[in-house]
Design a protein that fits this description.
Layout lengths: L1 H6 L3 H15 L5 H19 L3 H15 L7 H9 L3 H5 L3 H25 L12 H11 L10 H17 L4 H16 L3 H34 L2 H12 L8 H15 L2 H16 L6 H9 L2 H4 L6 H10 L3 H25 L8
Helix pairs in contact: 2-3, 2-4, 2-7, 3-4, 3-8, 3-17, 4-7, 4-17, 4-18, 5-11, 5-14, 5-15, 7-18, 9-10, 12-14, 13-14, 13-15, 13-18, 14-15
């Protein structure tokens, strides 16, 4: 409601508002949820103003490319499982690089918004229905009344703030913090056992595949390590790497993550290729956690892959072709990945050379 009220029919404000909303919503780490919520709120404004829907698709996907690095987003959990690391050790030092990526998305939104303002300069923006956004929000939330807790907004905000503070400060391991916060949130918002069962069952379809993934990753990496296949593949890769290039395997991995995660699934890259690159980088003094961070920088390009199911949801919601979306967004996605990589190098969490 606030964003729709503030945009006031200005193309620049609408586009920047889209980016702000996407960055906030995508913090849950789920691209599908981000696309559904943001498109429901912003598409009517884009259509009413005649804005290019490819801009909305681009900004939504780039925002998810930044926030997908969160431990609950998927890639970080995969990298941590593949290299036997704590997800918090990978994620927390990457926060400044993520902020740089978010700044890039907002800056790009300003540039694209100004371009649309110039394109639509001859068209009148009068008659924009400012009630459209709030009305859509009410309709969207109408079927979700059972989960509303308006009287507990401040309590839930405080709980979320404490969780994030504990995560950043590293008071306890990340899984312990989330289990404690989840237990407190359930008791606070849904005091009866029946209500708690309903909420757990509602989220089980998202939880169980991740749990199965972690177990499968442990089995897969265990077989590779136990049979010596990882060491053999690493030796082969190391033999192909020129002596002068070896110390730069961290930024090389970051660059490779863009095409590899585009043409392959995240599972194939993080469980199949990253451990091999990590073994090859070890002789040059590059730690596994540094390799894991480098491997996460290409997520903006990965989300453009035709192997990502949520991408089809996005292009369907904004009613554009996948090829159009890829052509419009690819260069910006590569630029965003490079911004995150450079920010990681400058902050020292990704080594330029071993």
């Amino acid at each position: 409601r606030l964003i729709v009220r503030l945009v006031q029919g200005d193309p620049v404000r609408i586009v920047v508002g889209s980016a702000v909303l996407a960055l906030l919503v995508s913090l849950d780490g789920d691209g599908s949820t981000t696309y559904l919520i943001c498109c429901a709120a912003m598409i009517p404004l884009y259509r009413r103003m005649g804005l290019n829907p490819l801009i909305l698709a681009c900004l939504l996907m780039l925002s998810c490319g930044v926030t997908n690095i969160t431990p609950w987003g998927g890639p970080t959990a995969r990298a941590a499982a593949a290299l036997q690391l704590d997800a918090g050790d990978i994620f927390i030092p990457m926060i400044p690089a993520m902020l740089a990526g978010a700044g890039f998305v907002l800056g790009l939104a300003v540039i694209l918004g100004r371009g649309e303002r110039r394109r639509l300069a001859g068209r009148s923006a009068e008659g924009l229905d400012h009630a459209t956004g709030p009305a859509l929000m009410e309709d969207m939330l109408a079927t979700n009344d059972a989960t509303k807790r308006p009287k507990l907004i401040l309590a839930n905000l405080g709980l979320t703030g404490c969780l994030l503070a504990g995560l950043v400060l590293g008071i306890l391991p990340l899984p312990v913090l989330f289990m404690m916060a989840t237990a407190l949130a359930l008791v606070l918002n849904y005091p009866t056992l029946g209500e708690q069962k309903i909420r757990v069952a509602a989220h089980a379809p998202n939880i169980l595949p991740v749990i199965a993934l972690i177990f499968a990753a442990g089995i897969f990496t265990g077989i590779l390590n136990g049979t010596g296949m990882t060491q053999a593949m690493a030796a082969s890769v190391t033999g192909l790497v020129p002596t002068g290039v070896g110390p730069y395997l961290a930024p090389i991995t970051a660059l490779l993550s863009m095409p590899f995660t585009f043409f392959l699934s995240n599972d194939a890259f993080y469980f199949g290729i990253l451990p091999i690159l990590n073994q090859a980088a070890a002789p040059y003094g590059i730690s596994p956690v540094e390799m894991a961070r480098a491997a996460l920088t290409g997520q903006a390009v990965h989300l453009l892959s035709p192997l990502v199911p949520s991408t089809y949801l996005l292009v369907g919601l904004v009613q554009v072709e996948l090829a159009q979306h890829q052509r419009f967004t690819l260069l910006w996605a590569i630029a965003l990945s490079l911004v995150i990589l450079v920010a990681g190098i400058l902050t020292g969490v990704i080594p330029l050379a071993g």
